[in-house]
Amino acid sequence: MERVKKASLTKTQTRIADYVIRNPQKIGVLSSAEAANEIGVSDASVIRFARAIGFEGYSDLKNFIYHSLVSDGYQSLSLSERMKQSTEEYAGQDISYRFLELMQTNIQNTFEQNKQETFRIVADAIVNARECYVAGFRGCRGPAYAFGRLLNFMRKSVHTIVDTECMSLSQVQDIEPGDVFVMMVYARYYKMDEIYLRLAKEKGAKIILIIDNVAASFCDDADYILLTETKHMSFFNSMVGTNFIVEYLLTLISHLLDFNERSDERDYLTRIQRM
After folding, report:
1. Contact between residue 197 and residue 207 where contact means Cβ atoms under 8 Å apart
2. Which residue from 32, 63, 108, 271 has the highest number of Cβ atoms inside 10 Å of its Cβ?
3. Would you tell me how many other CB atoms lie within 10 Å of the CB of residue 5?
């Protein structure tokens, strides 16, 4: 951020600046008090930092970061342009080492940029929902299918939507208040993602959004947001961060539900199929 380079900052403000630069996505979902708690400084220090680099306050800083994320050109790149960009960025490097390093970073960032309280609230909402809908299209199809399938081992009334056919849309039309709609989506965003999300919202469902960018318009309709890191070394978004969220939520849910009877029934049906 150019403003940081030009400003004369105290030691505490430099610490805040480093956090903001490294975690722009997270700043988008934190209040000044929450950001202060994450960094280990006072709320007032965060506000003074925002003013020190030329903003009127913390909200002004958040808006700047929001518009910077929105204007990020990467989301509009074609698949071939993404591949070209990745090839140039990692040219001459040890692909196996850099890949392992990047995937570890994706998992760590995904874990750290979401509050544990949010994970717990989301897990509790899924457990107590009347019906649970899980949706994910294109690159999110795999994680969405896995989440819906495994969640169905633990509770009934789980509906997994991984295509945009008419039958899938009719499923969303059956949503009622008390239901939960879990949506997985990341760049490049499509109009159909928004249609499904808005319809679920209008039907009264609680919206849980797993997304790669808090600047996306989808976030306005979400009750809870879990950010996923999707950095990659090829032309596609990495699913490692999303799969981490999926597995962590399933683990939390498994400790909240007593599904022994349901598991026994499933095991019995599985044994019959094998005969």
Report:
1. yes
2. 32
3. 9
